């Protein structure tokens, strides 16, 4: 660790220098360092391989910065494009206040977003930094809408401040989102929250046939009855129903389109907006721009974040029934930066690449192979693995309990050098970059197979040299990997 003089450079000054071995001790003096015990080498890491700068250890990355790096690390298409790097540097030297000061870079990003991810029926866009702020602005839109809608119909404008939502939802850790997040208690305990109506989450168990289907249909009926009851109890006071199309952090809980569409119909009947949180599911992970389209949903507001590189909302449909909505009346929702310009420049180029490489279609194809691999693994380890599920690359499996799941995550990281995320009570979730290679995914499944085999008979786990990361191939383009899709 050192502080170096940079006197020879314009402006002079001193800058801190961190050698790889210093990084975590340096950080831990001031910030909580409870993440991976890895110092990411930002030069050597590439695609779906994260290299530890201290040791050179290579990890197969099946988590992609919590599903936020659509093209993996150091995508060659970005790194090898001097024109893009110049644009990025120009945007990065400043941090303009986007809502008040227009730039060409801002306009080009918005235009590209609308082309690649937009929905003509959701024409209003709003940008902010982070997924939690995205969801909170979606909620503000709904509160404002409901209050004005009440007023226009001769009802009290003070009503309309409640959010109907699901158990085991995760929507972030901000002032409003804490009240709708209810996964692990440590994330919400001791913080003041609103007492907003919450209904059971009728998660699907796979394969969803026979008794499993009957059970989910019964659970959906109960949840819909709870929702009806909430609307009756809080007359004119529920602004919206908010849900992730697939609950991610809560355990990769899949919901049937039938259920979500019934909730949307209920919202329409009770003059509440239908809001989906696509912060984790959005931008190709499930095999299309948004998961909600695959479920046949027509939301009024969609919150996004992560792979977009910044947060935000797109809105329309019933929002426009109220003339002075938050997208029309200045000052109702805004922030200094309105999403960072440097993130917008990176996002624009990433979206162009996702579009030209057809990475969403590719995620659908690769994801079905991954799911088939996980289903096969569940057949081979019936006592350990169950409920293999997935949409696109958003795949998951269940272990029997939290302790075993946590042990699998640990063994994968320490012995196999594979980074895979837990979710909910006992799930393992795959969150690879959209550019991951088919062989890398297969290597991840083989690593999981070895760990499960080891759990049954510990002496069977031989590999001193983890195969998955060592053999991880360099990032590939969609066309190289799978042929034109
Ligand atoms: C569905 C969902 N909503 C909201 C958030 C919050 O996003 P952020 O951590 O960027 O605030 C997350 C984060 O994981 C998420 O998965």
Automatic annotation (TrEMBL):
Polar residues composition-biased segments: 476-485
Q: Where is the composition biased (Low complexity)?
A: 463-475
Gene Ontology BP term (one): antibiotic biosynthetic process
Family annotation (InterPro entries): Aminotrans_3, L-lysine_6-transaminase, PyrdxlP-dep_Trfase, PyrdxlP-dep_Trfase_major, PyrdxlP-dep_Trfase_small
Its Gene Ontology molecular function terms?
Answer: L-lysine 6-transaminase activity; pyridoxal phosphate binding
What EC number(s) does this enzyme carry? 2.6.1.36
Protein family (similarity comment): Belongs to the class-III pyridoxal-phosphate-dependent aminotransferase family.
Q: Which NCBIfam families match?
A: LAT_fam (TIGR03251)
User: What's the name of the protein?
Assistant: L-lysine-epsilon aminotransferase
